[in-house]
TrEMBL record, chains A, B:
A GO BP annotation: pentose-phosphate shunt
GO cellular component, one term: nucleus
Cofactor binding note of this UniProt entry: Binds 1 thiamine pyrophosphate per subunit. During the reaction, the substrate forms a covalent intermediate with the cofactor.
Residues at which Mg(2+) binds: D205, N235, I237
SUPFAM superfamilies to which the protein is assigned, alphabetical: Thiamin diphosphate-binding fold (THDP-binding) (SSF52518), TK C-terminal domain-like (SSF52922)
Binding of thiamine diphosphate, residues: H114, G164, P165, L166, N235, H311, F497
Protein name: transketolase
Species classification: Eukaryota, Fungi, Dikarya, Ascomycota, Pezizomycotina
Residues annotated as site: Important for catalytic activity: H74, H311
Length: 733, 733
């Protein structure tokens, strides 16, 4: 008899670790064994209660049917994980299908997202209202409003994060668990645990190979996230064959070396009781995250059981029919969910509503006893910042040259200090990114005493991620996904290393998560570190990526504007791209105009051309315009911090800024030109990688000094006069 | 007395593993201890021979001086690693300063590339001719022809790979060691070991946190690369402070779990003898790669010793002077390398030339005894392919629709089979990428027997990288860097996952390494897998990245052209971007024109517009042109597989293809438009992420069907007639 977990369960016994006995054979061997197993099935099933038996069979057949209808999809993993799902959704997880966004719900992440039918089907069985049987059957259909896409998507009730690209989900789960820790440390009191949820993350063999997951695993162990459980669907199969083709490490020992508890489950296909026991042990862990290594068989019951062929293709009508026959089902019936199965899950929505009501009552009492804390906790749940955050932005800046990374600190440090929504992290570049505020507290396990003398606790909001840029961004997606805008994660690094982080930055954009990325050293002006650290082409990626704001402010005033835009972008990640080197302050810049994407810095009615300046090199355009005057050439100057913001403006505004039908435009930016052709006719840009030289010398080497640029622009205007075709073409100056 | 290693040394004793005793204290504690240490220095130094003592002091002072001259750079790590350098360059590594590209040299990779002065200084001391003292002093100078950039660069004599972005170097080293294994298995005979070099890789604390390194470590253990040694400069300091701020795992246990030998060195600052012993043990390993965990003190001797402040800034003139005083040097003298130190390294070039001569003699004898094998080994060393490789490309293709990923296999499989320069890998997508040739042999340790029944050996050239896209690309850079074009690595995955691999792909481009990346599932046509797997913006990155050929062939004929270009691009990586779905074969496509980047598919003299089609959607442009005829609109059609190749054509050719002064151009490509503005006036492109739907349905959803596209194009032409400004602007259709 397995008891359902309750919200107030506290098991304080130390988590024990069951060492693995011999590993079940997999791959082709397993297929042979399965044939024996099929014969002996009656015996195996006796280990199961009758109702578990029928639930597992129904679930497995349903998955086979759902993949078979359109002849595609990923049946094998979902079928292998059936017993794990029953353990989680029936016995262990605390959630409310009829209040899917219940704040204190356990979070579940399917990091092996291609097995999405596993999750969709349990959402259906446990009573999530949107997930009807009809919707379930939309998997791989042409239905445009389907909620069963090929990988789980955050927009769907009961899905916490979008997954699919392997390794992302487990890092998201680390972020979700960190969010819980931070909110607990901030709002729980000795008498009220208003935040107490656990995070469960399902992974497959692939996630344990991806670098982003390995970074996140190492970091979660460091943080002692005892509220995180990773459940490893160890079926030893990937697309190419058995895992030992590419990975023969001792994963349990590796996890223990990373400060994780490890629990082994030998029979993950049927032994629901053992799985429940392990999950409950994991929830009770007091000191470490838990890794449950569960042996399963991919595509169990099918002819391709235990084989790579079970991973990413339907089994074929004949095999599906055969599974049904062996399981005692009618092979001619499809999508059958019998009454016993419905009954088995029937009470889950009510149980969930009881959880919700009990929690809401608790929060009411909490708000009465702790009115200030209660009000703040409510503000956070509503995703609001303190009202006065805008007032904290400096009204003006010193006139002397200053690096925009330093200006970024001046703008944001007071806001970070005052607004506890922000959790601000860095991938080991604290001295460079200027994100530390006075009296900041580090997010750390409270018992950590580092060699360098720094301590912290879980209420801390400054995060040292280590040299793990990819995990930093993926974990930040998890922090942001905990609840909308309750936590606004800020990441920081050199811009170039947002190429390491790019897959996770993309996932944030895809999920409409507000994450603010603060990137410094954003051009060849970075200098001595050389071409490996000088971004030339990276902005092109982020300018092309949907739903992200890439902003290159030109001086401190524009930095203020960039931060305002980023903080107000509640459904969109931003990248604030700043300079290593000091930048002159330009009197005409305006913080309020950054939100327009581009604006006229210097207007001239009878101009000869428009010069476009950007970010760290905005002053170059101003200087060239000035120098052109000596040649009797009149240049308008446009500051252009963000393409995406500009594209959102009305056509009329965009035409007023660019006036391209009247004047040719030349852009100055030491990045690859690609895309500037939309706004300009010619450009002074980069066509090769940079070079290791001091800032001024590298600008000089590539011709980004006032005199040669002025010459290039005036020569271009001359050429335009004599070559008619030129006006219809882009010209690299 | 330490003996120099010799080329024929064979130590067959089993590698022993020294377990760690208590870890030396680091961080602030160490600074306190150092003050004691300074007092007791005379005693400490007695452990050293007199000549080692003077060499270490000279080296450390030289590093401090080199950083101090321009007040910047990374002195701390290089100073901490001095004794490791002496052990490597004086006693262990087999190399030839006067023949830097000696084929059988040991490879050394500085994965912690910011400590580059460490390597530059040893190159100088051991007699590399280009690395003069004058050049050494160019570190951080404005000298444009300097060979001491801020991170090591492959173009410099004695540098094997460019490093800097952390974690890349160790993955490159895995590739270098794999190259050795493959060449050994292919060319060594029982009586001739013509390839016998070892790969040594220096890493810092950061490399052990980066995902790409963790992927490569796991894979190197799987491959049993006993010819690889990773030397861990364990100074427990990163930019933010002590490593335990972010990483408290048991690294030795983790490495052992990944199938590595582990050797501990407690006193890495002075104990050259112990280091040499460990390095020799590592070279003698018969079964595993070796990890040598060496405790050092960052910035040893300076006031900031053992502190993060020693990492990335010069020490200041006062501290540098003080170090000199304590070490018994004249504080007013700079860049001093005394006679004892010169004498210590004096014989190394001669020793190197002896190695070279002995190896050349061996190869001569080998060529006499094994003329065929010898000739082939020579061809490979010269970076040549067998002469007939082009003849292996099919002269024509079936007319029926075929996925370009399948066509890619048809073209390349016979070449891969016949030309053993190619080592072809996949990140666990063998069933999707079509890179397996008949009778291919896997690159695997010969004793591996996998559950799925696959075996291999080190002469195998098909590489299962596991789900490790980033390491796959970084390891491939190492394979390519072993010797120019001796090995031509091919990687393969879904295009979307080249975002995971992007930092390594960039490093390949920066280093001019020929690596061919085969990407499939390259558009929304990928279908059901949904937006996480549908690239929208990724091509923008690779089209903007310098020195890489991103090619999107439109049908089988263009696939043939793309492969020809990629194979002939000896100094440039390529990405061949292919479709999941079947593509119609277009009669007018021409393989020879792919090299031009773009070409006219259908010419019309009195056209109304030019339609540009690309890759998987090339047929869409052809179909729209056909449909426009019914509206009496005449469209030229241009096929445009590669921007970079087109930009390399003469202006005249480019104008002939585009004829933009005469006709407006419209591009059709379901990617972000950015950059197409250079070649077209309007586009039918993507402005949001894709959606999980079957291929045809997703194209329909986003309007990529002939009818709506034809309507858009004709409406645009109408608008052009009435709106003069429109012709000067880009229009999103």
């Amino acid at each position: 008899m397995i008891s359902p977990s309750t919200d107030n369960m506290h098991i304080n016994s130390e988590t024990s670790t069951v060492n693995g006995t011999s590993h079940t054979a997999y791959g082709k061997n397993v297929v042979a064994e399965l044939k024996k197993e099929e014969k002996e099935e009656a015996k195996a099933v006796q280990k199961l209660s009758k109702e578990h038996d029928i639930v597992l069979k129904t679930f497995r057949i349903l998955i086979a049917d759902l993949c078979q209808q359109f002849g595609g999809g990923h049946p094998g993993g979902a079928i292998g994980m059936a017993a794990i799902g029953v353990a989680l959704w029936k016995y262990v997880m605390r959630y409310a299908p009829h209040t899917p966004d219940y704040f204190n719900r356990d979070r579940f992440v399917l990091s092996n997202g291609h097995t999405c039918l596993f999750q969709y089907t349990f959402l259906h069985l446990t009573g999530y209202k949107d997930m009807t049987l009809d919707q379930l059957k939309s998997y791989h259909s042409e239905r445009v409003d389907a909620i069963c896409p090929g990988h789980p998507e955050i927009e769907i009730e009961g899905i916490e994060v979008t997954t699919g690209p392997l390794g992302q989900g487990i890092a998201n789960a680390v972020g979700l668990a960190m969010a819980t820790k931070n909110l607990q440390a901030t709002y729980n009191t000795p008498d009220f645990d208003v935040v107490s949820n656990h995070t469960w993350c399902m992974i497959g063999d692939a996630c344990l190979q991806e670098g982003v997951a390995l970074e996140a695993i190492s970091y979660a162990g460091h943080l002692k996230l005892n509220n995180l459980t990773v459940i490893y669907d160890n079926n030893q199969i990937t697309c190419d064959g058995s895992v030992d083709l590419t990975n023969t490490e001792d994963v349990n020992t590796k996890m223990r070396a990373c400060n994780w508890n490890v629990i082994d489950i030998e029979d993950g296909c049927f032994d629901i009781e053992a799985i429940v026991d392990a999950l409950n042990q994991a929830r009770a862990s007091t000191d470490k995250p838990t890794f449950i290594n569960i042996r399963t068989v991919i595509g169990l019951g099918s002819k391709v059981a235990g084989d790579a062929a079970a991973h990413g293709a339907a089994f074929g009508t004949e095999d599906v029919a055969n599974i049904k026959r062996v399981y005692g089902f009618n092979p001619d019936e499809h999508f059958v969910i019998g009454k016993e199965v419905r009954d088995f899950f029937e009470k889950i929505p009510d149980r969930g509503q009881q959880l919700v009501q009990s929690w809401e009552k608790k929060v009411q009492e909490y708000e009465s006893k702790y009115p200030e804390l209660g009000a703040e906790f409510r503000r956070r749940r509503e995703g609001k910042l303190p009202d006065n955050w805008e007032d904290l932005i400096p009204a003006s800046f010193p006139e002397k040259p200053v690096a925009s990374r330093a200006a970024s600190g001046l703008v944001f440090n007071p806001i970070a200090k005052a607004c506890n929504n922000f959790m601000v992290g860095t991938a080991d570049l604290s001295p460079s990114v200027n994100m530390i505020w006075k009296d900041k507290v580090d997010f750390q396990p409270p018992d950590l005493k580092t060699q360098c003398g720094i301590t912290g606790n879980y209420s801390g909001r400054y995060i040292h991620y280590g040299i793990r840029e990819h995990a930093m961004a993926a974990i930040s997606n998890g922090l942001a996904a905990y609840a909308p805008n309750t936590i606004i994660p800020v990441t920081s690094s050199f811009f170039m290393f947002y190429l390491y982080a790019a897959p996770a930055v993309r996932m944030g954009a895809l999920q409409h998560l507000q994450v603010i990325h603060v990137a410094t050293h954003d051009s060849i002006g970075t200098g001595e570190d050389g071409p490996t650290h000088q971004p030339i082409e990276l902005a092109n990626l982020y300018r092309a990526m949907p739903n992200i704001l890439y902003i290159r402010p030109g001086d401190s005033e524009e930095v203020a504007g960039a931060w305002k835009v980023a903080i107000e972008a509640k459904n969109t990640p931003s990248i604030i791209s700043t300079s290593r080197q000091a930048l002159p302050q330009i009197p005409q810049t305006r913080r309020d105009m950054v939100a327009k994407g581009a604006y006229v810095l210097e207007e001239v009615d009878d101009a000869d051309l428009t010069l476009i300046g950007v970010g760290a090199e905005l002053s170059f355009a101003v200087n060239v315009a000035e120098a052109l005057k000596e040649k009797n050439i009149k240049a308008r100057v446009v500051s252009f911090p963000s393409w995406r913001l500009f594209e959102a403006q009305p056509l009329e505004y965009r035409r007023d800024v660019l006036r391209r039908h009247r004047f040719p435009a030349v852009v100055i930016e030491p990045y690859a030109a690609n895309g500037w052709e939309r706004y300009a006719n010619a450009g002074i840009n980069m066509k090769r990688f940079g070079q290791s030289l001091p800032c001024k010398a590298v600008y000089k080497l590539f011709g980004f000094e006032t005199e040669p640029m002025t010459e290039k622009v005036s020569a271009y205007l001359e050429r335009l006069k004599s070559d008619e075709i030129l006006r219809t073409e882009w010209v690299d100056l």
